[in-house]
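Lesson 9: reading folded outputs for more than one chain in a single document. The general rule is that every protein is listed as its sequence immediately followed by its structure tokens, and records are never interleaved. Here is the first one.
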Amino acid sequence: MRVGVIGAGLQGRRRAKAVIDTGEAKITVVADIDRRAAADLAAVTGAVFTTAWEEVVAADVDAILVCTPPHLHAPVTVAAAGAGKHVLCEKPLARNFCEGRRMVEAARTGGIVLKCGFNLRHHPGVEQARAWIDEGEIGEAVFLRLRYGIGGRPGYEREWRVRAAIAGGGQLMDQGMHALDLCRYFLGEFATVKGVTATGFWPVSPLEDNAFGLLKTEKGQVASLHVSWTQWKNLFSLEVYGKEGYVTVEGLGGSYGGERAILGRRDFSRPFSETVIEFRGEDRSWQAEWQEFCAAVKEGREPSGSGRDGLEALKLALMLYDSAGRGD
């Protein structure tokens, strides 16, 4: 498979490394408005480079990695789908529902695979937690609690992430997309949501640096989430409690601390114990996600973390914003 990369920043470099590491495709063209960034990534991948994303869409490639800021996700993806190119697009899928719906519809009409960048699904701790739940280890899920945050960095308030016209929102549209996707991944669809947003430190108003959500399914299962740009020590914590036990995922490696999955059971007949699995080594979720995308293309199926999944996560974020705005 021949691949084009649009966006040669941090995410573009991560995605390109995943392609190279798995050896399942070849990057042939790279685009970025920063000519030097495009040239540097092209040199690493052995590709040609351009400063115009339209040239990547027109190139002889089978798939495109869209690693741009969110304001370009819709125009690039719609154009790529129209040209018959499969797309792996970074999260959030789009800045608003209309853009996201256009992308999903363009993928359907064009007969291409559209995947949203939800690499957290492919972290080994998350995969293990899902496997335990699917195997019935904790019984029917009752509630989920998820906390995910970073502390930003010097100059964060000047980055594109805090510009509404580019990003579409604050932390809820950033790491919140991963959080909402995992809520759906473990509990399914939600019927009602309540949200609160706050700007406590970073001068990014009207965007939020913290977002809180309560989401409830038709069956009464509840998800609680908090995503933050003021988590001074990076944190990832996912807990799912069932009628017979619980699973927990702590850390993502690197600055989030060692990654581990924990299984505990509701059993009062003996001393309390847990099963703990620790995952070591580098973060391979990017490679695993790329392999899932390639498999979906080869098999002509919808991938895990599809464009539809991206649209549903975006819809939940917008519902939380609406709730927060109303003061529900």
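And here is the second record, again sequence then tokens.
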Amino acid sequence: MKKPEPLNEGDQIPDFSTTDEQGAEVSASGLRGNSFLLYFYPRDNTPGCTAEACGFRDLWSEFKGKKTKVFGVSGDSIKSHLKFREKFALPFPLLMDEDHSLAKSFGVWGLKKFMGREFEGIHRMSFLVDESGKILKAYHKVKAKDHPAEVLADL
């Protein structure tokens, strides 16, 4: 097991294709021409992940005003994503990454330590991407509750 090696500012995002919790395809090529945020989070319905998601929800109109799409990404199932999105009225899609390929391609999958255990998982990190697919801002150290306002301030 190794520590994650996340992408950095100035890097081009990897080519990817996945679906959201509704089954709609989302791909790097399909997002060209749009500014967007990919925020990776460990798990649906956990305290930190819920605070972060609800923060983006609460600032949603401001993100829309800045013409920036928001996508949450975790390794949870479609069923879990659907329940999470519905329970908290999240206005943005949650992307599927059950095989962790998206997390690995962005370098956010790796060794974690929690309550004396070591295991592999998704690290809470985000990437603000421009219309050409270049990373404008890489957030490697994220405080779940404060992160949505931090991203908005950078737009």
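What the second record shows: Residues 111 and 120 are 5 Å apart (CA to CA).
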